[in-house]
Amino acid sequence: VGIARRQQSVDQARALELIDDGTMDLQEGLREADIVVLATPVRVIIRQLREVAALMAAGSMLMDLGSTKTEIVQEMALLPDHVHPLGGHPMCGKEVAGLEAANPAIYHDRTFILTPLERTSVESLELGKALARAIGSRPLVLDARRQDYLVGTLSHLPYMIACALVATADATTSADSAAWDIVAGGFRDTSRVAGSDVTMMMDILWTNRAEVLGAVEAYQQQLSELGRLLSSNDEAAMRRELSRIQAERIRMFP
Amino acid sequence: VGIARRQQSVDQARALELIDDGTMDLQEGLREADIVVLATPVRVIIRQLREVAALMAAGSMLMDLGSTKTEIVQEMALLPDHVHPLGGHPMCGKEVAGLEAANPAIYHDRTFILTPLERTSVESLELGKALARAIGSRPLVLDARRQDYLVGTLSHLPYMIACALVATADATTSADSAAWDIVAGGFRDTSRVAGSDVTMMMDILWTNRAEVLGAVEAYQQQLSELGRLLSSNDEAAMRRELSRIQAERIRMFP
What we know:
Chain A is of the alpha/beta class and 254 residues long. Helix content of chain A is 54%, strand content 11%. Chain A has helices at 7-15, 26-30, 42-55, 70-76, 122-134, 144-171, 179-182, 185-191, 198-206, 209-231, 235-252, and strands at 2-3, 22-23, 35-38, 61-64, 84-90, 111-115, 138-141.
């Protein structure tokens, strides 16, 4: 059962056979649900948790798919006892939003992070794992703070990096019409996530600010060091560093 | 006719039908060539230009495929009069080296930069354009310095960025075993070019140092500004900047 704010979304989801049934009425949609999965930007999840929980049946489970988990899990801890909360974050996504872009295959072979609360029962966690496996993902149980630290570097930092690259080209080379013919594969890949949905990313960044800012700072140091090596005449040191990085990249993605 | 340093490469290229004939003997390979195309790392091209030109027939054309052009073109200007030099740089590439990875399709629909010298005749430039078109590319004639400035930001900067990202993850999150399960699509794309051949990249960076260092500096300023917006409480300003960047990314890659 899909719940959306607009009738058009409900109709489209039904037409695309993404849902069996749909409604704009929160109460109606939640009444008989055993599992409720919130899939909106992070701060919308945080705002709606209490209202949603109040409408849920006793013993039902409340999950979310938000990319940052500390603030969500903190808010989940305050929910009434009759619901079982569990944080979730599938490590996949697209730069295209909207129902037309929906594709169940994006979950296949991806890690699905689960961040249980102290109050999360073993049963609820197992249900979350089963749900992740049912869509082809590999469940990975993590503490919410640890997940936010890791994705701060592995997911949110790449977004900041990609945005700064596009901003740099815009500020410098884009004035040259030839730049548009030159922009090639390397730039395309490195900048891809800069096309991500801004509202989604704003919520992610603002609910993980400390970790993202720490990652940006660590990153700037690494880039400065590469710049320092390039401006030096120590080719051997630069070659060692680039070789080490190349080997690490291959180790990450064999 | 392919010329390589090792017999194994010649045999392999022949077996893969990448060449009609091959040799390790420079003189033999060059004797009857109308067009000679150097396709090695940039500083090997620079080192070999004079030796190659001396063995070429009168009136034949000497091209290269190096990613930086200013130093190559400077060296080409000093070649004997009997050869016609022309700088070339196809905007495509792969993170996998070796003959097994050879694929003619990588040139399709890509820009092929040509950097003529003062001495390059109209005839030679037209021949270079025809060659680019014959492999499915779009020729683009540029001054060597202008090309080096543009690719400094659009191609070499993405490499530096990707390397710094891998180095950051290596220095911080990689100590956590969960990081390896989390590393997802965004990180993979943003870091892809960090897997590039180090010898090739060393030559590119060292023959375009001023432009790359300038691009890194401009980039650091853009990233610092994004960090400043994130650490401020001015969400509206950050949203405007990210929206502007998103629109620019979509304009670059519609």
